[in-house]
Write a structure and sequence with these properties.
Layout (H helix, E strand, L loop, with lengths): L9 E2 L1 H13 L18 E5 L7 E8 L23 H10 L54 H4 L19 H6 L6 E2 L5 E2 L3 H9 L7 E3 L2 E6 L2 E4 L4 H6 L5 H15 L16 H6 L5 H11 L9 H14 L8 E4 L5 H12 L10 E7 L5 E6 L4 E3 L3 E4 L14 E10 L13 E5 L9 E6 L11 E8 L4 H12 L20 E11 L15 E4 L9 H14 L41 H7 L3 H8 L1
Parallel strand pairs: 7-15, 13-19
Antiparallel strand pairs: 1-4, 2-10, 3-18, 5-9, 6-9, 7-8, 10-11, 11-12, 14-17, 14-18, 15-16, 16-17
Keywords: Cytoplasm, GTPase activation, Transferase
GO biological process, one term: small GTPase-mediated signal transduction
Main location: cytoplasm
Amino acid sequence: KNYYGGNWASFSFSGLLSWIKENQQKTDVSDECEDWRKLILENEDVISLNKTDKTIEHVEDFCFSNKDSAEDVEEAGALSKLHVSGASGAEGAAQESEKECAPMGSASPGAESWEPEKAAGSDPASATEGNDTEITSESESSHNTALGESTLELGKTEAAPSEISTQEPKKITYSQIVREGRRFNIDLVSKLLYSRGLLIDLLIKSNVSRYAEFKNATRILAFWEGKVEQVPCSRADVFNSRQLTMVEKRLLMKFLTFCLEYEQHPDEYQDYENSTFAQFLRTRKLTPSLQHFILHSIAMVSETDCSTLEGLQATKKFLQCLGRYGNTPFLFPLYGQGEIPQCFCRMCAVFGGIYCLRHSVQCLVVDKESGRCKAILDHFGQRISANYFVVEDSYLSESTCKNVCYRQISRAVLITDQSVLKTDSEQQVSILRMPPVDLGQPAVCVIELCSSTMTCMKDTYLVHLTCPSTKTAREDLEPVVQKLFNLNTETEKESENEELGKPRVLWAVYFNMRDSSGIDRNSYDSLPSNVYVCSGPDSALGSDCAVKQAETIFQEMFPTEEFCPPPPNPEDIIYDEDELAPEDSGFSNSPETKPEPSPEEGSSGGGTAVEQEHNEG
């Protein structure tokens, strides 16, 4: 590939169009030249690898905005090579977009926690939490959204209808989207980071967080009785909510407090351990709207398949993540989810890691006697030897995966002209879990990103929809898109009043992505013991599966080593004599030549308060 991250990558708009074209027109590539087989010795076998990526299917894209004279428009400042998200591709966007981000390791002033003993300032993972961190922002909304301050302390409540801007959205044409394509960083996989999840802990521990910046998810939404509503999460949100009665507020507070310490009260739920969480909620004297909010927007679990214990665990996890960085449990990386693998790549490169883009591999070379993999053979015929080999599932051939049963993920990405829930602030990062449209269909996770996340151009929103597949992505997701958005083109007359006021979709793409997570290693045919398989993205909202898998593979290879340890300070590194290369050698991999991040790289990656933790520690 000519980009980092595989199916975890992010693209500019023109990069995504190239990716779409590649996946719509891809054909099986056969070896035109088998010369590389002459390089295999008599005592060696080969395991051939895929030449094309077969993990993406049913790619369909649609343009709903005015496409006049767009054919000759080029992306502003376009490069000759495919652009991938990152600081290099978003420097221009950073100059004009509002930058509302909460630095890693610094809690937001006023952010509330459901756990007093774990409030800001007491978390050992972050020595600077609880301090008043000054965050400059050009947007007025930073005071009550990006910083996560409670509405109680600010003396503000949710925007009343009269306070909501009724200004018509600006007309955005397709040529504008193409011209501003570098402003977009569009993720192939849509995820958020739980503020107390495994990935955040790993980013802090390994100091990889210094290469990234994050923005708080500002709103948890719900679809109830045909309209989108904001769900109160923190105590302040609950008591300031205008959509809940006083009785509902007390019932909700009582139930959420119980969920935080449910293990201490087994008598209250043990009779329902064999029931679903939805059935358990009906026994708690909660109103239908509260049951809906808890099930779909807080626990975010299935109504039919989730047990009572699983639902309580999910609710507790949500509540424990509140207050660490803001009034919702989630963070989103600026410039897109594709920044995360690139951040780890940067840290690895600082300590001597080597990456080869546009460099395909023909096969794995296996020693017949030992049965172990000894090398790979690239498309130049070069043999690269190693002790261990980690292969992403998509590289394995059909013969190797003949016994593997894959799941699929349905994905859609929309560019829209306004938010699904208008408020007095345009800069919102929202998550909405749409209940199943029909019986047997999965719930759909909707994540809406504003321009201050550096993922879309000004006056637009980037909307990601994700669910486990039952059919093609378009068949799974279009019913949800139709409920939330206006799909009429500019030239079509809106015939139904219900379409008025809905955000208009300017452009959309649907595709199915393979979910190779959770596959047992024994399902792969005849893999050598020193070849490890990692999966692509799963359909879950967080990244716990990927972190656990990475740590498991690492521990199997190096059982005595620590996984992703904190990097040493330069002054603490002790060099062996054999690591010091002669000055006139011309090339050296010694620690002396390992590059330190430049000031520019540090600024683009967003040096955060987490850096101070390890430097001061």
